[in-house]
Amino acid sequence: MRRTLIVELKNFINKDVKVQGWVQTIRDQKEVQFIVVRDHTGLIQFVLERSKNAKLAEEVSNLTTESAVTLIGRVVENPIVKLGGFEVQLHDLRVESSASLPLPFDLFGRVQPELDKRLDWRFLDLRQPNNFFIFRVQTTLEMGMREYWYSQGFIEIHSPKLMGSESESRAELFKLEYFGKTAYLAQSPQLYKQMAMAAGFDKIFEIGPVFRANPSFTSRHDTEFTSVDVEISWIDSHEDVMSFEEKWIQHAFSLLKERHGEEIFEKNDVEIKVPSIPFPRITMKEAIEILRKQGYMPPPDKKGDLDPQGERLLCEYVKNNYGHEFVFLKDYPVAVRPFYHMRYENDPLTTKSFDLLWKGLEITTGAQREHRYDVLTKQALEKGLRLEPIQFYLDFFKYGCPPHGGFGFGLTRTLMGLLNLKNVREVTYLYRGPNRLYP
RNA sequence: GGGGGCGUAGUUCAGCUGGUUAGAACGCCGGCCUGUCACGCCGGAGGUCGCGAGUUCGAUCCUCGUCGCUCCCGCCA
């Protein structure tokens, strides 16, 4: 007999079915027993009158919640049943894998355990439909992104995560032993995705892991996370990159709203807003002026950048004055950007760069890249970098590299915003942080 | 790395300016219950109060140290 998913059972009234899933609740009464079973599509009640099958009734009495079971029975309409107005009369039961009791925590209790406890037992935590739902949303979001890339002729790449040399900022690199040498885990595909431009790939994307050796203890940082990267050739400036990104986000959000908008609203109490184009653009100079007028002074040690509080205030300002959730904050000072960001010809202290802020959070950093070998080399030296470890990278620009730019986009931070969750750990399949390497 | 907050039953929490057998809800175990659906009723088990030291006649409570968790800042996606 083939398995029937719980969501399909309504089409099998008065038919025999096989259901496979987890025991969520057992209501074991003297004359009649009820089992509520869950699979990834829903819940269904099974019923057994003890007098009809004493042996089976005994098996039901011995069930434990969260055991993995196969159940066979006949679907019958029953308006009394609150769970959909029908139920399944139990004919047979097989325990595939019993759950020992007590469980580490009550999966469907009135209150959730602390996040840390849930992460210790992530596989149980993810049995909860609301948590499973996060990954359905993630799948659709990535699908939306891919649809748009594919329609625009982008190529997908998978760059290596093992690197032979320190690249941009050595401080945040994980070091590891590599056959007697030292290797590093990539903190970004930055250098390798630019190679695709030198290789003539024209437009590329990558969705993959990145590693940051920062001891960051916040709700929005992890030491390993999924980065979404894009790089585009033959651009005129970072404006072209921004206008790509806003269309791309609009497309992905619109698919997400269509597929899951209602369910997200029900489950997470937040509306998916498909953003209008163009997104507001504000230069860093303007942003600081705006915040000053509101009485907020960015800390002087930020060298012309905003702190998280400033970013939250700016988002609030844009929401109130432009009616928009997103804002491109652009033209950052050279001091706070890496050596490969291109600078303005007529304003050498300003880079052709941007961040994308959404709901108070940085979700993107992007820029036009410096593609001129001599200028790039000069900027690297200026930033105090040694050329030798990055010579392989500098070589990309020695033999004909088109002007290009791109961005890195934080998938988990975006999911947080989409689902109104307050911690990246919630939306990360298995979180990795300074104090967590298990499970 | 700097700062704040929190560690009490399996889970979430309460515990009075320091006082005798440390409580509740849910979960778990046993019994009862003809249709439950947050099932209900009766009973039970379960705690080195994170750990160590100090103050005190007496510490879950006050002090110090330590470990763990959490949030903010720094760093960034």
In what order do the strands lie side by side in the largest sheet? 6-10-11-18-17-16-13-12
The total of helices stands at 12
**Unreliable stretches covering 5 or more consecutive residues:** none
Average the pLDDT over all residues and give the rounded result: 93
In brief, what are we looking at here?
With 439 residues, the chain is α+β, with helices and mostly antiparallel strands. It has 2 domains: 6-97, Nucleic acid-binding proteins (OB fold (Dihydrolipoamide Acetyltransferase, E2P)), CATH 2.40.50; 129-427, Bira Bifunctional Protein, Domain 2 (BirA Bifunctional Protein, domain 2). 30% of the residues lie in helices and 27% in strands.
Give the key terms.
439 residues, alpha+beta, RNA-binding, OB fold (Dihydrolipoamide Acetyltransferase, E2P), 2 domains, BirA Bifunctional Protein, domain 2, 30% helix, 12 helices, 18 strands, eight-stranded mixed sheet
